[in-house]
Specification:
- This protein has a two-stranded antiparallel ribbon with strand order 1-2.
- By secondary structure, it is mainly α.
- The chain is 32% helix and 7% strand.
Length: 121
């Protein structure tokens, strides 16, 4: 049975493919640089070096000067602490050692009351 199946498979492979008027042949240009796709346990993954190369800007982009920023774009480029937005580093500095422990910031201990008998320094 297996030999019969193998024989039929070889005969079908040897027959020339016949195209009729409804058959469309599509040819695609070969890619300039191909990426290797790997399948492991049913999950497909591409080569990381190939993906990194795809993310790089084109070579002629380095020669062009950067475009001038409009007022709104210049504002968006400013740091968050200049815009009055949340800044974790500033919050940690303000809270001191109470950061993550209390909602009230760290403050120095109040000075002891001055003695009325001793002159002020």
């Amino acid at each position: 049975m297996a030999r019969l199946f193998l024989l039929l498979l070889l005969i079908c492979a040897a027959l020339p493919a016949q195209a009729d008027e409804h058959t469309v042949v599509v040819t695609a240009a070969a890619p300039q640089k191909g990426c290797v796709e790997v399948e492991v346990d049913g999950k497909r993954a591409q080569s990381m070096s190939c993906l990194s190369e795809k993310l790089l800007p084109p070579a002629n982009a380095a020669a062009r000067p950067p475009p001038a920023l409009s007022g709104a774009e210049a504002t968006m480029q400013r740091p968050s602490n200049q815009l009055g937005l949340y800044n974790r580093a500033a919050l940690e500095h303000r809270m001191g050692n109470a950061f993550g422990k209390s909602v009230t910031p760290q403050r120095p201990a109040p000075p002891p009351p001055a003695s009325p008998l001793l002159p002020p320094r």
